[in-house]
Amino acid sequence: MESSYSYLLILAIILISTKLFGLVSEKVHMPQVVGALLAGIILGPSGLGVLESTDFFVKVAEIGVIMLMFTAGIDTDLEELKKTGLQSCVIATMGVFVPLILCGGLYFVFFKSQFTTMDVLRAAFVGSVFSATSVGITVETLNEMGKIKTTTGTTLLSAALIDDIIGIVVLSVLTGFSSDASNVITVLIKIALFFVFTLVMALIFNKVFTKISKKHWHSRRVAVWAFSFCLIMAYCAEEFFGVADITGAFFAGLILCNISKSRQFVAKKMTVAAYMVFTPVFFASVGMKTNLRVMNKEIVIFALLLIVAAIISKIIGCGLGAKACKMASHQSLVIGIGMVARSEVALMVAQKGINAGMIDPAILPAIIVAVIASALSTPILLKLAISKGPELA
Questions:
Q1: Phi, psi of 145 (to 5 degrees)
Q2: Comparing C-alpha atoms, which of 75, 70, 58, 77 is closest to residue 227?
Q3: pLDDT digits (tens, 9 = 90+) for 98-135
Q4: Model confidence pTM above 0.85
Q5: How far apart are CA 133 and CA 140, in angstroms?
Q6: How far apart are CA 213 and CA 362, in angstroms?
Q7: Which of 248, 244, 243, 246 minimizes the C-alpha distance to 233?
């Protein structure tokens, strides 16, 4: 009989293995997320079978996702977004919808889907996984080459932030339809009401937290209250509006990102708490669900095509968006390549798709391979594009 305290040992194994694999990944210039995923794959059911998913770890992983999205929201610099304004919006919009159509279309055609509502939704969910951008790798590369403070670098970072916001809105719509695809009007009304609810919460709680932060900005209580607000928003989004809980968490962070004194303090506390326990469990759990044993010839071919679609779609989408804003061809190419990398947000959307029954777990290995490939190819392509072209503005 399995010990009722075995979850403690399993948790310890997850934390140690994800950290060790993450450090190894970092040493070979790969994102630590890759190491955490590999830990889950190697120690999970498709590998050594040491780890297995339980209800406890599913809940812990969900909290990890919520914390990641809340931190992403609170780290958003609205002032930075205002500087590049229209350019970043156009680039981000193209950078969301071209991958949505291209990657989703690939899934639709490859698996010979029918034009039913559910098949279209499934294809859209796969496309939405690759709509998100992770610029952490791009930032490191631009820093290394001394290009982060250029107009191109600033525009790229702002576009990535707006990209995430648009991507979250798209996820909200898809999640709403996946739960009640039969009633379009009801879904749209619920989504509209969610954004009205968010606006009301913003007007109230922005003032509340601004007042609190004037006197207690360095108090741990502020971080606790902020996280409580995040959890309430996540709960309300899912329970009352049929919108993904991570959408509620992201907008909770966005509401609080203007609180100048408390913002960095809360973000720091949240990051420490998240990466101590919750997010390693999330990444490991995704790895555990990635069953490599089901990767037949069809899935391997799909994975290879998905890698190409994931890379090309961002370069074309964001590049054309930049070109439409009258940026130089070289700048447009650099911005397009800089938006290629996917990471945490893509994995979160994939997880949401599986939970909603919109993404078949059998294709998760192909999605993971494409996410990792996009992350690894970005610094190589970016360095090549910058070094071979004229000096960036």
A1: -95, 5
A2: 70
A3: 999 999 999 999 998 888 888 999 999 999 999 988 77
A4: no
A5: 15
A6: 47
A7: 248
